[in-house]
Amino acid sequence: MEEIADRAGAGVATIYRRFVGKDALIDSLVQQLADEIAQAAGEALSLDGGVGLEWFLTYVGETPSAARQYAELWLDREVDPATSRTIRAAIAKLGKKAVSTGVLRPGATTAADLLAWSAR
């Protein structure tokens, strides 16, 4: 917590006033990342054809590399179920759009092919 406070330019007491402990801080960071991914999924849905799926997968692939030290935490923590449902629904729609435009092979499914990374 001291290192986090130092990097944030805040005192340790300030961090503890906002978060009960390190786990609460990590949970908040993971939820923030999930919220950003959900927002990106929504943005990807506005793109035509299979371009949205490609853009979204690139975004998801680049996001952990930008915050590599947090990527492992994503896999070990739960996020708000509503956020998870939003992401999954968007991926399903993106997958259908990509199949219908020929970007993905016919028969590709979001459950087996696109959602494996988020299975818990």
SSE blueprint:
Blueprint: H1 2-8, H2 12-18, H3 22-45, H4 51-66, H5 68-76, H6 81-100, H7 110-114
Helix pairs in contact: 3-4, 3-6, 4-5
Word description of this protein:
With 120 residues, this protein is mainly alpha-helical. The chain has one domain. Helices cover 73% and strands 0% of the residues. It contains seven helices and no strands. The protein is elongated and about 55 Å long. The two termini are 28 Å apart. The model has no long low-confidence stretch (mean pLDDT 82).
Q: How many DSSP H or I helices?
A: 7
SSE order, as H and E?
Answer: HHHHHHH
Estimate the mean pLDDT confidence: 82
How many domains, in number, for the residues? 1
Straight-line distance between termini: 28 Å
Helix content: over 70%
* Count of β-strands: 0
Beta-strand percent range:
under 5%
Low-confidence stretches: none
- Give Rg in angstroms: 17 Å
Largest sheet, if any?
Answer: none
Secondary structural class:
mainly alpha
Could you say which overall geometry the principal axes of the C-alpha atoms support? Answer: elongated
Short description:
The protein is an all-alpha fold and 120 residues long. Helices cover 73% and strands 0% of the residues.
Summary tags:
about 120 residues; mainly alpha; about 75% helix; elongated
